[in-house]
Amino acid sequence: MKFNNYLSFAIVNGFFFGLILAILKFDSPEMIVIWTGLVTLGFYLLITLAMSFYLMFFNFGSKRLHKEYHDKTLGYFIKEFEKRENIVNRVREFIHTVKMNEVEEEALQEDAESINREREAEEEAARE
């Protein structure tokens, strides 16, 4: 988040906090406006001081993003994921073919059994 956003957020908070305190404490409109302005100014100075200390103690120059390195690493991971996805797809296809073969064998056995039953029925009818 940018520092301008923190500063704006602090100013708005200071304004409303000052307005609430001024309304609760004072009756005259002049004092409410002055008190609101002072509290808003206080919040502004406080957040500006906090941001300046933050920038003074943290060195952002040493924390640069190495885009080429990260792109290369992400490219490697994408290739590895694609390889593993292909392996998983091949395993799924193998499992599917094994299941289909089992289903086909069961169907052939059922067909053979029904043919044998028909033959037996024909042989019994021929005997009678």
Give the SSE layout.
Blueprint: H1 3-25, H2 29-57, H3 67-127
Helix pairs in contact: 1-2
What does this structure look like?
The protein has 128 residues and is mostly helical. It has two domains: 1-64; 72-128. It is built from three helices and no strands. It has helices at residues 3-25, 29-57, 67-127. The longest helix is centred in the C-terminal third of the chain and has 61 residues, at 67-127. It is elongated. The N and C termini lie far apart (96 Å). The relative contact order is 0.06. The mean pLDDT is 87.
What's the overall geometry? elongated
Number of strands: 0
Query: What is the helical fraction, as a range of percent?
Result: over 70%
Compute the average pLDDT.
87
DSSP summary: helix tally:
3
Main beta sheet: strand number and arrangement?
Answer: none
As residue ranges, the low-confidence spans are: none
What is the rounded distance between the termini? 96 Å
| Class derived from helix and strand content | mainly alpha
Helix-strand pattern: HHH
How many discrete structural domains? 2
Radius of gyration: 40 Å
User: How much β-strand is present in the residues?
Assistant: under 5%
Features:
128 residues; 2 domains; single chain; mainly alpha
How would you briefly describe this protein structure?
The protein contains three helices and no strands. With 128 residues, it is mostly helical. The termini are far apart.
